[in-house]
Every structure is written in C-alpha cells, then in structure tokens.
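ASSEMBLY PREDICTION REQUEST
Request ID: AP-0331
Submitted by: J.K., bench scientist
Number of chains: four
Total residues: 1538
Priority: normal
Notes: Please return the full assembly, not individual chains.
Input sequences:
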Amino acid sequence: MFVLLFAHFIVATAALTVLKSRPRVSAVLGICVFVATIIATLQWGRTTDGVREVSFNWIGDLGLSLHLRLDSFAVMMVLIISVLGALVLAYSLAYFDPDETTARFTGFFIAFAGVMSGLVMSADLFTMFVFWELTSVLSFLLIGLHSESGHARASALRALLVTGAGGLCLLAGVALFQVELGTTSFQELANMAPTGTVITVAAILVLLGAFTKSAQFPFHFWLPGAMAAPTPVSAYLHSATMVKAGIVLMARMSPIFGDLDVWRWMVVVAGGITMVLGGVRAMYATDAKLLLAHSTVSQLGFLGILAGIGIPGATYAAVVHLAAHAVFKAALFLSVGAVDHAVGSRDIRTLSGVGRQMPLVAILATLSAASMAGIIPLFGFATKEKALAVLLKADDKVGAVGNVALAFVVVGAVLSTAYSVRFVRGVFGTKKDCAPSHVHHAPSFLLVAPVVLLSSASLIAGLFAKQTGHLFDAVATTLSPEATGKLALWPGVNTALIVSVIVVAVGAAIGYVFPLAATARELPVTGDKVYLSLLQGILTGSKKITKYTQNGSLQTYVVVTMGVVIATLMYSLATDQLPHFDNMVIADSPLQFGVVVLCIVLTGVVTFTAHRFVAALLLGGVGFAIAVIFALFGAPDLALTQILVETIVLVVFLLVLRQLPSKFERSIKGSARTAQIVFSVSVGLVVALFALLVGNSRQAPSVGEEYITRSSPQGGGNNVVNVILVDFRGVDTMGEITVLAVAALGVANLVNMARRQRKPKVVEASQ
Amino acid sequence: MSAALIVLIGVLFASGTFLLLQRSLTRIILGVGIMANAVNVLILSIGARAGEAPIIGRDGEFTDPVPQALVLTAIVIGFGITAFLLALAWRGWTIDGNDDVEDDDEDKRVASAKPLLGGTEVPGDYQ
Amino acid sequence: MNIALALPIAAPLLGAALSMLVKQLFIQRIISFVALGISLASSIVVVAKVVTDNDILVTRLGGWPAQIAITLVADRFAALMLIVSISIMALVLIYSIGQQASDEHSTAYHPVYLVLAAGLAQAFLAGDLFNLFVAFEMMLMASYVLLTLEGTNKQIRSGVTYVVLNVVESTILLLGIGLVFAATGTVSMAELPERLAALPDGVQMGLNLLLLVAFGIKAAVFPLYFWLPDSYPSAPSSMTAVFAGLLTKVGVYTIIRTETLLFPGGQSTLLIVVAGFTMIVGVVGAISHTQMKRVLSFHIVSQIGYMILGVGLGTQAALAATVFFVLHQIPVKTSIFLVEGIIEKETGSSAFDDIDGLAKRSGLLAVFFMLPALSLAGLPPFSGFVAKLGILRAGFDNGSYVITAVAIFGSLLTLISMIKIWMGLFWGEVRPTPPAGRVGIMRHHKIMSTTSITLVGVTLAIAVLAGPLYDYSVQAAEQLLNPMQYVKAVLGS
Amino acid sequence: MIGRRSVILTEADRWLFPVVLLVSVYITFRGHNAPGGGFIGGLIAGAAFIIRYLAGTPLTDRWHRALNPTTYIGAGLVIAVVTALVPLAYGDTLLESAIWKWNVPAIGEVKLVSSSIFDLGVYFLVIGVVLLSLMSLGADPVHDEEVGEES
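STATUS: Completed
Returned structure:
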C-alpha cells in the first residue's frame, strides 16, 4: 500500500521528465498505479481488521513523525480517490491532445492522487498538514495549467491563497496541540478528550483550516474560480477529492471536539450558509460547469454540517453522502466535459437539443443529477433520507443548533433539487428560441465510459441501498464507535420521507420554472470581493509601507541608524544615575587643552566649508592635531601612524579631488539644515555622555598590565604596543593588513574598470 | 579623565554625523574620516589614562597599551576604507559628472508605480 | 586541534596572498580551490571533533594564556556555521566560474573572495570581541570590492549606500567594543561575561544595545536593514548569493552570541518586537517590488526576523529552532539566488516586466526554483517548514501568542511574495523569445545549473536529515544557554 | 600628474628617496623596542614614493616593471601568513613566536624575534598598498595602462 504511494510519485516524476513527450504512456502507467492501489486496498480491507499503520520518524525531538494509518475510513477514501482517478485519467486520454501541457497535467494529476491518498491515510494532524499543503500547491499548478490565461492565473492564486491561509491556521492549531498536549494523533486526542481555552482555540484554528479547503462559507468563493482548470481537473480535484480533505478533517476531529458548542455552531452556521448560498448561486449560473461548481459548494456545506456536528448518526450520514456525492458529481462534471468537447459550449442559455443528439450522455447525466436531487431510487436519495432522519432527531441531542441545521438542510435540499433540474433542463433540454446546437462529433468511448460506470453506480447503490449501507458500517465506526446507521431504498412513510417529498416537489417546481437566463443581483459584499480588497489592500499597504521605509535615500537611512543609536543610549542613560564627574580634570595638560581647541576649530571649518580642497586639507589638519593628542597621551606609535596615515590619505584625497569641482554643489538650507544640526549635536552629546558614564565604571584591571609584564621577557620586545600588534594580538594585525590589501585591490580594480569601460569610447572617437 | 577630550569626542561625533547627512559623497567621506577619529580618541581617552608611553625601560606610570593597539588597528583599517571610498567617489564622478549620492532608482520607481502582483494587476476576473 | 581551528582562516588567507602574486586565471582558480578545500577539510575535522568530544574546542593563538591571547573557539553552533559557510563559499566559487562574470573580469576576484572566506571563518571562530571586529572588517572590505567588481554605474551607486552604511556599522561596532574595553579592561569573550555582569545596569544596557545595533545592521533587522535591498541586487548573482546566504547570518550569529554569552537574555523583549517588525516590513517590501533579485533581497530581511524571534524567545527550544533556521536558511537562500543567476544570465534581467513563461521554456528550472521557494515559504515537507514550525512551537510554548500570530501572518505574506515571483517569471507566454537552437536553459548553463542543483539537493537533504540535524541544533542550543561551559573551556577551570 | 615637475622636489627626491627607504627599514626593525614597526616603516617608505610622485618622477616605466605593487602586497601577506603558519608545523599554535639569539663576534649578541619577520611582511604589504592606491588614483584614467594587471 505504502509502496504504492511512492509509485504515484515515481510515475508522476517520470511523466514530467522522461515521458514528457509521451503523455499517453504516462497516463496509462498512472491508471495502472491506480488500479493496483484499488486492488491492494481492497485486499487489505478484506484480510485484516481494517487497520494497518506505518510511521516514519522525522524529527523525534520535535515529535514530528509521519504516521499513516489505513483504517476503514481511509480505505473508503483511497478507493474513491483511486477509482475516480483511474476513470478521470482514462477520460483525459480522450479529452486532451497529447502535448506538453497534457504531460504536465498527467504528472501533476498522479502526484496529486498520491498526496491525497496520503492525506486521507494520515493518522495525525501533523501528517495530514504535510499532505494538506502539498495538495494546495499541486492544485495551484493544476488550476494554472493554462497559465497564458489571466483568468487561470487569478483563479490559481485565489485557490492557493485561501487554502494556504487556511493551511496556516491549521499549522497554528497543529503547533498548539503539539505544545499543549504533545501529540496530534487523532486517536490519542480522542483518548485524552482535552479541554481548555488554548485547546479550544487550537480546535477552532483547525476547523478554519478545514473550512478553507472545503470551501465553507466564508471561504467558499475560491472554488467556482478553480473551474478555470480543465474539466478533468475540476471533476477530480474540485468535486471528488481535494475539497473533501476538509470534510475528512472535520470527520476525524468532530468525535473529539464535536461537543464544543463553538465548534458545533461554527460548523452548522458556516455549513448552512454555504449550502444555501451555493444553491442560490447555482440557480443563477449560466455556465454548466460553474453551476456544478456552485452545487459542489452547496453539497460541501451539507457534508460539512453532517461531518462536523458531532452526532454519531450524522457522521454515518456524512460518510455515505460523501461517497454518493463523489460518484454523482464526478459523473456530472465528466458529462459536461463530454458535451463541451462535442459541442464547444457550456452555456445553458444557448445549448439546445443536445439531449436528443447525445442521448446516452443525457440519460446518464440525468441519472446522476437525480441522485444529486435526492430522487428515489438513486444513491443520493438514500443518503439524503438518512441525513434528514438524523437531523430531525438532532435537537434531542444537541439542542437548538440541531434545529438550525435542519432548517438549513431543508432549504439547501430544496435548492439541490432545483439546480439539478435546472442543470438537466439547461444542458440537455431543447429550447424553443434557440437554434439546436451543433454536435461536431460523437463523444468517443473513453469520454462516455467513465460516466456510464459512475452513473450506474449511483443507480445500483441506490437500488441496493441496504447492502450498500452495510458496506459503510465499518467506515463510520472507525471515526466514532457509535456511528452506526442503515440505508434503505424505501424507508417507509415517516417524517423524513414526507419532508423529502415536499422538498423534491418544491425544488423541482422551482427548478422548472426558474428562468435559465436569470441574472443575479450583484451582492454588495461577497467573499470574493472581500478577498480581492484584502489582496489589493495587502499590495497597496505593502507599497505604502515600503515607500516610507525604503525610500532609497542614503540620508534617511543614516538618520534612522544614528537615531536608533541615540535612542538606545538615551534609554540606557536614563536607567542609571547620570555620569558623575569625580575624577575629571579640565585637561591632562595645558598643551592638550590648546590642541583640543585647535582641533575643534578645524573640525568646525571642515564641517561647514564650501570648498573641497579646504575641507580635505583641514581634515588632514584635524588628523595631525589628534596625532599630537595621541603623542601627549603617551602613545608615540599611534601618533606616528596617525601622522603618516593622514598624510597619505590627504595625498589620495587631493588626487581624487583634482577631478572634482572645487566647491560643493548644494547643501540644504533653512529648517532642514537646522534639523540636521540639532540631530548631529544630540548624537555628539549623547555619545559623549555615555562615554563618560562608561569611563567611570571600570572595576577590573586591564589586561594591558599582563602585556606589560610579559612583553620583554616572553615577547622579546620592549615596545609593548608593537609586541601586542605582532605577537599577543598578531591575528588582528594579520586581519587588518588583509583588509588593507583588499582595499588597495579594490581601488585598483575600480580604476581599471573605469579604464576598460572608457577605452572603447576613446577608440570610437578617434576613428 | 580629561573634560577637554570628552568635549572633543562630542564635537567630532556631531560633526561626523552632520557630514554623513550631506548629499555630496566627498562630504560623506569627510564625515567618515571625522567619525573614525572620534572613535579613536574615545577608545584611547576612555579606555586608558594618560601616562608614559608603554616602552619597557622608560620611567613613569605607563599608560594602558591595549587601547593603543586597538586604535592602531582601527586607524589602519580606516585608512583602507577611506581609500576605497575615495576611489568610489572618483569612479562615480567619472560616470556621471557629480559626486552626489542619488536616491535608489528602483525604490523610487516602485514607490510611484501601481502595486502589481507578478507583473500584472491583481486579477479578479473569473466570471 | 590547533591546526584544525587555525586552517579555516589561515588557508584562505595564504591562498589570497599567493593569488595576488599570480595573474594567470587558471592558477588563481586552482589556488582558490585548494585553499577552500583545505579550509573545508579542517572545518569537517572541527565539526567531527566537536561532536565526538562533545566539548568546546579552543586554541590560544601565540600560545599565550587564555586571558591575554586571542582565542579561536568552536562550539557546536560555531562549528556548524563554519562548515556550512565554507561549503557554500566553495560551491559558489564553482558557480561563479560558470557564470563567467567575475573572475574573468578582474584578477582581484580570487584573492578578495578568499579573504571573504577567511573573514567568515574568523568571525565564527573568534573568541575575542576585537578580533571579531577585525573579522567583520575583512568580510566587509571584501564585500565592498566584490559588490563593485564590475564598476558599473549601478554598482557604484548602490555600492556607495552599502559602503557608507556598513562603515557606520563598523564605527558603531568599534565604539561599542571600545566602550566594552573601557568598562571592563578586556575584550576576551570568555572573560567578559563575569566582568560585564558586574557593571551598573545602565552601562550594561547601553553596551548591550550598542553591540546589538551594530550586529543588527549587519543582520539587517528592522529598522537597520535599508542598505540591503538597495545594494545586493546590483552585484553579480553569485556574489548576491553569497552575501544573502552568509553575511547577514554572521550578524544573526553574533547577535546570538551577544544575547547568550555576553549579556544572557539582555534584551529579549526588544528583540521580539524588532523581530515582528522585521518579519513583516521585510516581506512587505518583497511584495511591493517587481524584480526577482529585489524581492529576494527584501525576503532575506523578513527571514532574519524569524531567527531574531528565536533569539528573543531565548528558550532552549527557541534557540534550537533558530540554529536550525540559520542552518536551513543559508543553503536555501543561496540556492535561490543561484537559480536567479541562471535566469539573469539567460535573459539579461530578472524583472517581471521583461520575462514570462520560464516554466514552459525550462521545466527543470521551474522545479529548481520551486523547491527552494517553497522551502523559504515554509511549506512542508521542506526544511523551511521544520525551521518555521520549530520557531512557532517555541513561541506558543513561551506563551507569546501575539508574536507567533504575527510570524504566521508573515509566512502567508512570504507565500505571496514567492508566488509573485512564480507568476511574474514562470507563468504566461514565453518572453523573451529564446535564441534559436537553444537546447534548454539548464543544459545551456551547465556549470551554473549543476552547482545550483547540487545546492538545492543539499537543501532537500537538510529536510530529509532534519532529525539528526535538529538533534545537533538542540545540543548547540544547550551549549549556548550554558555560557559557563564556554568560559570554562576557554579559560580553564 | 599633479602640476609641472618641480626642480627642487626632483633634486630633493634624488637624495631623499634612498635615505627615507633606509630609515623606513630601520624603523621597522626598531619597532619591537621603540616606537616604530612594520606599519610605520611601510608608511614612511610609502611617503618616499609620494615624494617621488610629487616630484613627477614617473612611476610607471622602470618602477612599474620592477615593483608591481600587487606583488608587494602579495609578498607581504605571504610573509606574514607563512610566519604565522610555521609554528603549526612544529605542533604549536598559529603565530606562536620564537626568539633566536646568536653571539656574533665583534657585534655581540644579536637577537631575532620571529615576530619581526611578521612585521617585515606588514612592511612590504603597506608599501604595496600605498603604491597601488597612488598609481591607481594618480594615473591618467584614460590613457595609462591598467595597474597591477598584466596586459
């Protein structure tokens, strides 16, 4: 089984690399992998008790290990994924031309199936998160398959950002669980039955993650956009598999947290609104595929309520309806694809007479639509009956929220029937005022065969509802021990049936009457608008912030940097008592005082003069004055070095300046200049004060004393400073001469580059 | 500790900062030079006490040799940096005939451009 | 042991010296490879020794007692940084030869590049504050030269910003170190903890902050990062890759040292706040720009925020996560810049306006962009995810919910910025039209591609081997949080 | 070149140059015991070149060939680094210094400290740096040969 997971990725990689020019071969290989997976899964499902685990310890310290667990629920999901995967891939053989895009499609598709299988097999939240994010990335690539189209790019981005944001919520939840409880394993969480504020927050974060993935309100809007992807992608990712990831997560978590009121209310309200909203939007959609997309949203809302409400019976209903939905929705998408392929249009306002020309597809699609509408004797009927029956009794167990859920579901169910009718009418019906659509060619075998299989599955499962229901017993009890239930073709006349009949009747009537070309009033606030304005806001806000923080001006940068220095030093000065002036003398010697005064004067001139030469010369002057200060201080080496360095710098300065104009061009005047002066003076003041404070705080003796005692006997020299430089701290000197060498190389390099870049021009000029 | 030197440190830091804030690269280099001197005077005067040069055999109380060694290294490094900056100024001058430090083009362009996502405007068209 | 600790610094230095004496490109290349090879070999020895002895390695230069000698010290963290950075330097050297942009341009390239390597090694090993300053200067000077190697208008202009702000940084660092000496009478990092702790609060805080500001500029944290996005993009991609991967991390490294060894837990709140701003403002800049190199440069800043957050939280878990984050970040960041270099070499630009449809032209290129990009965005199962999760968990564990939420939000923005590059360069119709007969971008630029792929492979390996590497990080964090071990190892008991 | 050639400077240079070079070497070796050392010596020697340069004596022909500044820098760095590395071969640490003493007849005891060799490296390097900066920025940027490059 787990080997087969890897097989997915190997085939996917092959499809993207060596088999790039032969997408059909890789598709066939993919189908083989799917079939193998199906067989293996069934085998295990039968022979063992239904549970098989494997774990890969990734980082023990962080408690990160990938833990897969094949229980009955996972078996069901893997089967859905693989069966539909094989069918859709077969379908795609006929749907696409074998070009490079198809190769990419095939590769991504198979990889996606592998990742999705991993996701449903995850035994803990962390593992699920890992696969979760991968599905987001792969669906991004799949939606953006035709990246030339701006529409495709926008949709891919939307899907990625919404699910990505949800993924981060999930991640936060995972991290919280790991930190608080030390585990994210579903089983262990269930055993612990944890409570507490942080845990609740974590659970809600996880729930939000599930919402985004399963397109629950208010994150439902990305899903219709994702229909930009080619039809096989929509059929697979956005109806049968990826969007179910959230439902899977909710189904796994609700036995643990379903009792939390917040959880329950969030699930019911979000799911309910999703169900109704999706239904309404489906009534207004004119693109058949978009209609199905909105219907998917609606059904996901339904599934969300069932999976998340935390009633065992509902969990059972969720499981069976999940299967039913996967089967009928995939069939519907594929049939739309077949029509689109044959006619070249999906617009239900203009399609006309398709049903007559493509009777087989029409019948099959109608069957599946009937299952979606919940009409007897199809699979969808049985599952919806079960759900209604559970929800009718829900208020006994969970109180008011059960009634709210019921209300939403009833309204949603009416809409389901309505849009199912609308779908069939729109796609296959004959419209009086429309010219019959032209069917270019009959759909090929591979386009129809998967639909045949899926639609008849809906029918058979419906007809043998009781037996089918048994198949799911083990599945549901894996999730929650009490989650047992039965399906029936004919439940007998009870409240649920009566409700159901009314629902179907009303729904059908609405669906029949409702105009096909109806346009919805634009809502002032939609999820999509919010998303767009948020994204726009992020972009604009980013730009605004960046405009201020990164204005490209060196002056600003220096001001901020020095400003930080002042601020930190002032803060530090404020924490201590101000420096004291105990052992302070005016100057160490009168000569020192004189030189300092001279130095200050020279500095002033350097600062404010408008003449380059004067400034450079007097900078040298400042340097010489400081050399005198060094000498007076007892630092002859320093003084000598300073004098020589200043001399050479002065010469280099003059060499450069001879090329520049003699005066500085402009300098800021007025208040800006005053501000600069005030700022600079405060830098000087604060640094000097802090230096004073530090100077008074020495307690330990300097390491210098040690150097003085060791210099002559061990260092072999009397000039301690020199011995420090070449011996005690010789590495510093080694580094420093390297710096010098590199600087010189840099200077030479700049000059050489200038020559090299100028030479051609000179040659041109001389020619 | 000598008050005169503390004042000198303050003045040098202030002057250096002021020069760093100017647009002309030449003045910035002057600022770098003055700042370097400021730090050097600071290290020497705060880190040690004036005294006799630390050369074994001389009389008197030696001043601490360590700050001297540190400052010496710093002076030499400063020399390298100044030389390189001067070469930059020179090169800048040969390129565009002035030594002003201009604002960054790309930053300016981005500040005035529309916010874009991947080269296109935010795409919101799917229906 | 003395040799193993000395050679990572000395070998490249000798190589640089010899390289200046020869002008033949071929010989220069050989010298560089041999020098970096020796350096790498000895850093492997260092790491092996650190792991097997489970102790801190010390060498006292000049054979003087530890109190007065400059020491080279390698604990787990330093050894890790050493080996990672030297490997990256060696790999990028190969790349830059394939790029035909740098060493064929100027004979200064090889010596300067080797000095950069030596400076890096010295910065990681330095057990002496002033020696650290010198190491910084070696790196900085080398980076000034490398950044302006081609001497183009753009490089000069951004070079000025880079040089001036880094000179300001040097000045502040020197000021800080000078004052540390003035207050304590020593610059030995082993002697300092005790002496610093004895100082009055205000002095301690001021010194701590001064060092943090200087290292913060180096690490490019908010609000001291401005120089980075303006200057890095103008260098040749191989240089940007090295700078991006390594130089800022030296800043992070020194911040960690400051906050664990010199001033344990000194400024944790401040660091957390700074980290939050750095994460957001950096990535916000990335979102606003429309040139891959710029986006990535801003992105460096943002990621630094995560590392600083780890330092600010200061728990062992947080520091372990930070060590791992740094370990992951260096190769990933470098590799994505290397991929950028291929794009730039092929199309002459990395601006979204100029290029489209790269994924169609070269699927391989797309994959090798996507892998590090997803890792940077922190998606599983890549190394960036482990690093991010580690930080988030440490944040939650510490009860710092707000900053952790900010970090999570930041990672959404990061995803946007990466997708922005993807949408800007890789999707859409192919543009500009490839030259006729071009086999494939990656195949055309063999050396660059091979090195990039190797490095991306390394990043994947980090994800796969995250277990043992994380263990290593945890132990490194343990050492960091126990400064007495460092002091003891250096000074003896 | 700056301005025209000055006769006085040229004459002064002819006599001063060798003297200053000698002084610089003396200062370098004296540095271990009195103010001086490799830096100061190197800078003084550099100053000698500056005088020569200001005097207008061309640095580019004879001097250029004989004394490529990059070679000075490289050689200086090699000397310094090798001096630092040698002790490693004896199992000591980087930069460990040794003191050799010889009794030379007639002169008496001659002491050589290995770190003086290190200082000599510094000396050469500094000369090279001064020379290279001077030649680069001092030369005519358009017509002259590239500095430090084999062309």
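REVIEWER COMMENTS: The mean pLDDT of chain D is 76.
SIGN-OFF: pending second reviewer
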